[in-house]
Automatic annotation (TrEMBL):
<dbReference type="GO" id="GO:1901135">
    <property type="term" value="P:carbohydrate derivative metabolic process"/>
</dbReference>
<dbReference type="Pfam" id="PF13439">
    <property type="entry name" value="Glyco_transf_4"/>
</dbReference>
<dbReference type="GO" id="GO:0016757">
    <property type="term" value="F:glycosyltransferase activity"/>
</dbReference>
<dbReference type="InterPro" id="IPR028098">
    <property type="entry name" value="Glyco_trans_4-like_N"/>
</dbReference>
<protein>
    <submittedName>
        <fullName>Glycosyltransferase family 4 protein</fullName>
    </submittedName>
</protein>
<feature type="domain" description="Glycosyl transferase family 1">
    <location>
        <begin position="197"/>
        <end position="354"/>
    </location>
</feature>
<feature type="domain" description="Glycosyltransferase subfamily 4-like N-terminal">
    <location>
        <begin position="15"/>
        <end position="183"/>
    </location>
</feature>
<dbReference type="InterPro" id="IPR001296">
    <property type="entry name" value="Glyco_trans_1"/>
</dbReference>
<dbReference type="Pfam" id="PF00534">
    <property type="entry name" value="Glycos_transf_1"/>
</dbReference>
């Protein structure tokens, strides 16, 4: 039996990485003889099967930077006292064998963030202890001799790693796209008299877009609100949360689009809201992949995706969606105007579903198992020498 450790600092019910870990665990349980342990500070036990154990490390520190440093120390203590065949980290923890870069490259996100901020924001980012801790951990991770494989979740992610850390051996980096539960996200859940549309008093012909994600700034909600000024026929559902949500509500008022923007919070049954929408918009400034893109596609919804989103690699222009230049709200507005066509929306949605069907969870699990098998074989051969 393979003893696999998965490292993730904490569980967020609306987190993309957490969804992928849950899907991975379910797939491993069905497909392989694997004993999984999650090393974490906080996790939701009721989403795990009995075959998964939780190794909890203490949560210490008042600030994000100190909590992360304590987490790294706690993980290292667990790894020194417990044997695992493979250690796969979903956090920037130096010393792991496999690093799944699901959160992308922090150095690249910081570069983009600073380029979009004003003077005060740039100063804050530059002197932020959290960013310095993350950059230091990321650098140590990519230069650590224990690191054998880096799993990027898009080709863009691979390019970002090689750009910021050019000394890493490119042969260590592989790309495995995220998978989606194509049965749980399915057009069969779309209904004509959708209860969400009825509750919000939308007419059947009203074009409705959906934005799904927490952390509205990085996800590009500012650009989307600005696009709505020109895309006057569209309603927008905002699913997710942000501690500065009031800023976005106020911005929608100032732009005069507040009567068409509906902030609905985090939703556990997000399929109901995909069903209510005609189109997903994911205008992220930085997004290593974007699970919501595959979710919407699986629900039979076309997508408008920024060029900085890894999942844009799955978009065929005019077939299952469109890719627009990150931050270009006018281009996004023009695409929304084009997508008012019901015939086009139906075609985009049907093709999007066919795209999603190419990326089931089983595909992701098979590709991960192949990585595990290669590592185990190489390590066995090395020990035999």
């Amino acid at each position: 039996m393979l003893k696999l450790a998965i490292i993730r600092q904490s569980y967020r019910p609306d987190g993309g990485a957490e969804k992928i870990i849950s899907r991975l665990l379910d797939g491993l349980r069905r497909r392989a003889d694997v004993q999984v342990s999650i090393i974490t500070q906080k996790w939701q036990k009721n989403i795990l099967s009995d075959s998964v154990s939780i190794l909890q490390v203490a949560r210490k520190g008042w600030f994000r930077s100190s909590r992360f440093k304590y987490f790294i120390n706690g993980v290292n203590r667990v790894l020194h006292t417990t044997h695992f065949d493979l250690v796969q980290s979903h956090e920037r923890v130096p010393g792991c064998q496999i690093y799944r870069a699901g959160d992308g490259v922090h150095a690249e996100w910081l570069r983009i963030k600073i380029s979009r901020e004003g003077i005060l924001g740039r100063l804050f980012s530059f002197f932020s202890l959290f960013h310095r801790v993350m950059l230091r951990a990321e650098s140590k991770l990519f230069h650590h001799p224990n690191l054998e494989v880096v799993i990027c979740i898009s080709q863009r992610g691979k390019r970002d790693v090689l750009h910021h850390y050019p000394t890493i051996d490119p042969s260590k980096i592989t790309c495995i796209y995220n998978g989606i539960d194509i049965d749980n996200y399915h057009p069969q859940f779309n209904v004509i008299n959708d209860p969400v549309r009825v509750k919000l008093d939308f007419s059947p012909d009203t074009p409705v877009a959906i934005f799904v994600g927490s952390g509205f700034t990085r996800k590009g909600l500012d650009d989307l609100l600005e696009a709505l000024v020109f895309a006057v026929d569209w309603q927008l559902l905002v699913i997710g949360k942000d501690k500065k949500q009031n800023r976005f509500i106020e911005k929608s008022r100032k732009l005069g689009v507040n009567n068409r923007v509906h902030f609905l919070g985090v939703q556990t049954q997000v399929q109901d809201f995909y069903s209510a929408a005609d189109l997903l918009i994911h205008p992220a400034w930085y997004e290593p992949f974007g699970n919501v893109v595959l979710e919407a596609m699986a629900m039979g919804r076309g997508v408008l995706v920024s060029s900085n989103c890894g999942a844009s690699e799955l978009v065929e222009e005019g077939i299952n969606g469109y890719v627009f230049d990150t931050g270009d709200s006018k281009q996004l507005a023009n695409l929304l105007d084009k997508c008012k066509d019901r015939t086009l929306l139906k075609s985009l949605g049907s093709n999007a579903r066919r795209t999603a069907e190419q990326y089931p969870i089983s595909r992701m699990v098979d590709e991960l198992l192949a990585v595990y098998q290669t590592l185990l074989t190489e390590n066995f051969d090395e020990n035999e020498k």
